[in-house]
Amino acid sequence: MRKNFKKELEKIVSGISWNFIGILDTDKKLHPIPKNIQIQALFEYLGREKVAEWAKRRGIKMIESTNTREYPDLTLLSGPLGKEIIALDVKTGRRDGNRTGFTLGSYWGYFRRPDKKMAGCRLPYGQFSQHWIIGFIYDWD
To answer: What is the pTM assigned to this prediction?
Structure first.
């Protein structure tokens, strides 16, 4: 699975596109998406949903983070992964001209102490056999 995971991940996210047209209220009135909404959550939802469907088909256990500050967003294990544990984070960034950015985690935390269980990381960082990011970069006028 190690060698093929990149290809699998590319297949999972290749069909994701922006397909939201607004917010539907309980009176079935459609409202436009406000400019100041945290649209990152919509992209993250789409990414998680696609990975969950894929994991279920493959017999892979997927564990979601318990809060927004926990690494990783998704932990993949068992089934065809064997003893491997894969960390998968879903990140978003708004393009600003020709650059964008998103955070990768705390350099002072679990990156520097990979064998120790640290706050904000599901397992000791070094127990993950692979670390992947699904990154969404978007434009917003």
So the answer is: 0.80
